[in-house]
Specification:
This protein is α/β, with parallel strands linked by helices. The protein has one domain: TIM Barrel (Alpha-Beta Barrel), CATH 3.20.20.140. Helix content is 40%, strand content 18%. The strands form 2 sheets. A 7-stranded parallel beta sheet has the order 1-2-3-4-5-6-7, with helices on both faces. A two-stranded antiparallel sheet has the order 8-9. Strand 1, helix 1 and strand 2 form a beta-alpha-beta unit. Helix 4 runs parallel beside helix 5. The longest helix has 14 residues. It starts with a strand and ends in a 26-residue tail after the last strand.
């Protein structure tokens, strides 16, 4: 049985109203989500976000945290990654310049990359190849943001299909998020999958993009943030007893006596 996740639920607009956040989480639980990423774009909200997520996390739904970096300067992106990677479960980057797109594609600290339909840069062969060869990022399809950008320019939906075809060619996994900013933007998992299919994902790809793929990001983050994590592929499995070296008196070479055979 599939478990579903939405890693793009933005709560900046009502983060100070915990009852509203609780209603949002309760609604998404009833709709069938097992994991929700409460998301912000401004790091100043991360303290409150962490406090609320821990308070509202339950056995019924896993509430995690996400920071989406919206910057055009790659040095600024690097600084934010250094400062906040260890404090949130998911890091997304909106690519506002070619330099940021290249950085996000190859930096293993980035979980999700997203692009704008009406502004450069776009997801192309360079980013796809960097992700495949060096990075860990997934291509994000933020549904409501994409629909807002399309507006009356329906031809722009063809650009998303080009992204999807590139992702297939370079084996870049895709994550679909609602990019919701209120209760009224939330949709049930299979409705979200249907909207992803509108852009060109197959039925199986669409379901994977809201289940297997996002959940693998959350699990990867959980491992990396655990005390046993050392580096990719290396975990501390346990701690033995302290080792005490026997005290050995060392004599001069003239005290050496060969062992008789």
């Amino acid at each position: 049985m599939r478990r579903f996740a939405d890693l793009g639920v933005y709560v900046e607009g009502f983060l100070d109203d915990i009852e509203e956040v609780k209603r949002l989480i309760d609604m998404m639980r009833k709709l069938g989500f097992d994991c929700i990423a409460l998301s912000v774009t401004n790091p100043k909200f991360l303290h409150d976000l962490d406090r609320i997520s821990k308070r509202l996390d339950s056995g019924e739904v896993n509430v995690v945290t996400r920071l989406t970096i919206v910057e055009s300067d790659p040095e600024r992106v690097k600084a934010l990654l250094r400062k906040y990677r260890g404090h949130v479960d998911v890091i997304g980057v909106k690519c506002l310049s070619n330099a940021v797109a290249r950085l996000a594609a190859r930096d293993g600290r980035v979980d999700l990359v997203s692009f704008n339909l009406v502004k450069e840069p776009t997801f192309d062969e360079v980013e796809a190849n960097l992700i495949k060869e060096q990075g860990n990022a997934f291509l994000e399809l933020p549904i409501w943001e994409l629909f807002e950008q399309i507006g009356k320019e329906h031809m722009l939906s063809g650009l998303v299909l080009e992204w999807i075809q590139l992702a297939r060619e370079y084996e870049v996994p895709i994550v679909t998020t609602s990019s919701s900013r209120s209760l009224y933007d939330v949709r049930a998992p299979r409705e979200l999958a249907s909207l992803a299919m509108f852009f060109g994902l197959s039925s199986e790809e669409a379901l994977d993009s809201i289940s297997k793929n996002p959940l693998s990001i959350v699990e990867r983050s959980r491992v990396k943030r655990s005390p046993s994590f050392v580096m990719p592929g290396v975990l501390i499995s346990g701690r033995g007893e302290p080792y005490e070296e026997d005290k050995v008196e060392v004599h001069g070479i003239r005290d050496y006596k060969p062992r008789r055979t």
